Amino acid sequence: MSRGRGSYNWFNSGFPMVHDNTNAESLVPMFPIVFYDDFLGADILFPASGLKECGCKWHTLIVGTGPAVAKVGDGINGIASVAITNADESQVAVLSWGDQESLSLERGLIFEARVCFSILPTTGTETVQAVFGLAGAYVTPLDNVDCNAWFRVESAANTVLLWETDNNVAGGDDDANPCAGITLAINDYHIYRIDATNIAAVKFYVDGVLVGTGNMFGILATVGDVQPYFNVSKIKVTNNTGTGTMLVDYVRVFQDRS
């Protein structure tokens, strides 16, 4: 039986899609706006923290002496690593578009990535947090990002996968919620999808299974403009020797044209 399957009105998006019938990976999204990166090729390094380079789609941000964002050498399928170390300091490692918010949650935006943790966020004295999905401009702490729809893992319960939305509107969803039926494990890849084709019911999927739905209705002006976002971080208060490493196999985002 063929693994590829076509859907004319994929997840009620209004656009056709060819997907892998065995794992729910989106293979050919037939949307007006499509971004795809499989992290393949000889260029192992991303631009240094805070810099942008011609021809590179991605931007990195590093806070502290230990974090690193780079491609994994000889990583099968092409893999990007976002990692912090156990150094006793505040640390941030971010892979994003450098706050170039070229996507819109109000244009039927869909995010998809295959992600695992080679080191699940582990606790020092304070929490280590990891998020991946869609977000506005970088700011610390994570809860101050003006808009986000992302998956979240925290070291206090690092096998529990959370989903979270925040549209910067009072009364909207702004709390992390557990993904039903999901237990994370080291080096265990899943395909994560965030579907904002209905902004009042933003759906979170893991391997094609619905695990949460958030309401982002009421986004004002450009607050709903976002970028792909992968962040592992910790804030030192007294001491924090926690660590964590996120591995990203591929990223796909697609939406209608504005």
Shape: globular
Q: How many structural domains can be distinguished in the coordinates?
A: 2
Computed over alpha carbons, the radius of gyration is 17 Å
Number of helices: 0
How many strands? 19
CATH topology of the largest domain: Jelly Rolls
Helix/strand-derived category reads mainly beta
Provide the residue-averaged pLDDT. 91
* Main sheet properties: 8 strands, antiparallel
What is the level 1 CATH name of the largest domain?
A: Mainly Beta
Query: What's the architecture of the largest domain in CATH terms?
Result: Sandwich
Topology as a string of helices (H) and strands (E) = EEEEEEEEEEEEEEEEEEE
Helix content: under 10%
Distance, first to last CA: 38 Å
Uncertain residue segments:
none
Q: Beta-strand level of the residues, as a percent range?
A: over 45%
Q: How would the blueprint of this fold be written?
A:
Elements: E1 4-7, E2 17-20, E3 26-29, E4 33-37, E5 59-63, E6 68-71, E7 80-84, E8 91-96, E9 103-104, E10 110-122, E11 128-135, E12 148-154, E13 160-166, E14 177-183, E15 190-195, E16 202-206, E17 209-214, E18 225-234, E19 243-255
Antiparallel strand pairs: 1-2, 2-3, 4-19, 5-8, 6-7, 7-19, 8-18, 9-18, 10-15, 10-19, 11-12, 11-18, 12-13, 13-14, 15-16, 16-17
Task: Walk me through the structure.
The protein has 258 residues and is an all-beta fold. The protein has two domains: 1-30, no CATH class; 36-255, Sandwich (Jelly Rolls). Helix content is 0%, strand content 47%. The protein has no helices and 19 strands. It has strands at 4-7, 17-20, 26-29, 33-37, 59-63, 68-71, 80-84, 91-96, 103-104, 110-122, 128-135, 148-154, 160-166, 177-183, 190-195, 202-206, 209-214, 225-234, 243-255. The strands form three sheets. Strands 4, 6, 7, 10, 15, 16, 17 and 19 form an eight-stranded antiparallel beta sheet that branches. Strands 5, 8, 9, 11, 12, 13, 14 and 18 form an eight-stranded antiparallel beta sheet that branches. A hairpin with a 6-residue loop joins strand 15 and strand 16 (202-206). The model has no long low-confidence stretch (mean pLDDT 91).
